[in-house]
């Protein structure tokens, strides 16, 4: 059985512009500030991001996923973004696997 067959949620090969921020650990340390990257694939439970820096398994993240459509708010079109927290579950040579945790929200920027 392949890794994909073991997953509970279907993954989609969608590249979404993303901003990741590693939240400070118990010592108040964060390896880097906010970075911009893209998803390689995504599901309702998590995503895989192409990234070349190592992150600790269990690191908590603030994630802003930019959606490929605009929202109309009061006659003004704004970019659509999903904001959610994530947790690093696995590192690979070509990126990082993240599980979404908590509630998400749609925001317009």
In terms of topology, how is this protein built?
Blueprint: H1 3-6, E1 17-22, E2 35-42, E3 46-50, E4 60-73, E5 76-92, E6 95-108
Antiparallel strand pairs: 1-2, 1-4, 2-3, 3-6, 4-5, 5-6
β-strand percent reads: over 45%
Counting copies of identical and different chains, the oligomeric state is single chain
Q: How many separate helices?
A: 1
Biggest sheet strand order reads 1-2-3-6-5-4
How do the helices and strands follow one another from N- to C-terminus? Answer: HEEEEEE
> Major β-sheet, in short?
6 strands, antiparallel, barrel
Structural class: mainly beta
Helix content: under 10%
Overall body shape: globular
Computed Rg: 15 Å
Distance linking N and C termini: 42 Å
Number of strands: 6
| Residue-averaged pLDDT | 85
Uncertain spans: none
Q: What keyword list fits this structure?
A:
109 residues, mainly beta, six-stranded antiparallel β-barrel, 1 helix, 4% helix, globular
């Amino acid at each position: 059985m392949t890794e994909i067959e073991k997953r509970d949620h279907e993954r989609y090969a969608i590249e979404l512009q993303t901003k990741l921020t590693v939240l400070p650990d118990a010592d108040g340390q964060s390896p880097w500030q906010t970075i911009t990257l893209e998803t390689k694939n995504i599901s309702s439970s998590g995503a895989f991001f192409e990234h070349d820096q190592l992150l600790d398994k269990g690191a908590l993240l603030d994630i802003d996923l930019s959606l490929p459509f605009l929202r109309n708010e009061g006659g003004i079109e704004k970019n659509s973004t999903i904001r959610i927290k994530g947790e690093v579950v696995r590192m690979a040579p070509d990126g990082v696997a993240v599980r979404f945790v908590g509630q998400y929200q749609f925001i317009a920027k």
